[in-house]
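Suppose you are handed a protein chain with no further information: no name, no annotation, nothing but its sequence. What can you learn? This example shows the usual starting point.
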Amino acid sequence: MAAVRYKKANYVVEADIQKLMGGKFQGVVLVTCDNGLPTDATPRVVDGMSDSPQEALEEAKALAHRILADI
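A reasonable first move is to predict its three-dimensional structure. Written in structure tokens, the prediction is:
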């Protein structure tokens, strides 16, 4: 499953998933800046785990949209 990429101004926000031990999944969001300015490239993780990769990606996309709204 590929990451979903959004762009707003100079920011790029990518939503993806990671597989956890025990067969669970968790959404992950990475925010970067494409204008050469430093950003906090620490991935942000969705609170909670999901049973399917699709559900985890939907949670990650929702988090990405909340982050974009704050930019």
